[in-house]
Sequence to fold (191 residues):
Amino acid sequence: MRRLTALVAGLLVLAGCGSGGPAPAAAPPPASTVVESDEFNATDVMFLQMSVPHHKAGLEIVRLAEDRAVRADVKTLAAAIEVTQLSEVDLMTRWLADWEQPETAGDNPQLHAGHGGDHSTSPEAIAELAATGSGEFEKAFLNLLIAHQHNAVAIAKLEKEGGVNPQAKDLAERIFQSRTAQIAQLLGYLD
Fold:
């Protein structure tokens, strides 16, 4: 329950980011309407196995904004993304452990071929961002994070269309909605 509360609080912070006003007061988390199930299929497993390393790469990206010269709104959004994704990684790794499945599917590109390819952000792209000078960092950060979150939307869509586990499908829907909103907000910062 504490994880759900933290996730909802993170999403509420995120929803208030960039709105020009203060973040809305945190309402009590709604009761989950998802009927829990231990049933899962290969798509559920692949969704989690693709999402865990994807989220970890996202954490590397957003943490780069902590110590860089970027607008306060960008720092706030990056911090909110970090809170949300940490909670999601914890949840997904727990499900994989409960299902007795490995945390990742491995690095073989063929493993991802049936799921639209590898949707990860390369370590080289993250290293290149980390090496970007302060005058160009914010724009490079926004562009990489937009692409990264677009990949999260693609991964979530796969689960929404082919998964059977209600909790994983619910998480995929939340990821789909939140990352789509983040992309719109990030695009606004590029203007």
The two ends are 39 Å apart (CA to CA). The domain at 2-15+40-104+119-190 is CATH 1.20.1260.10 (Ferritin). Residues 1-29, 108-117 have pLDDT under 50 and may be disordered.
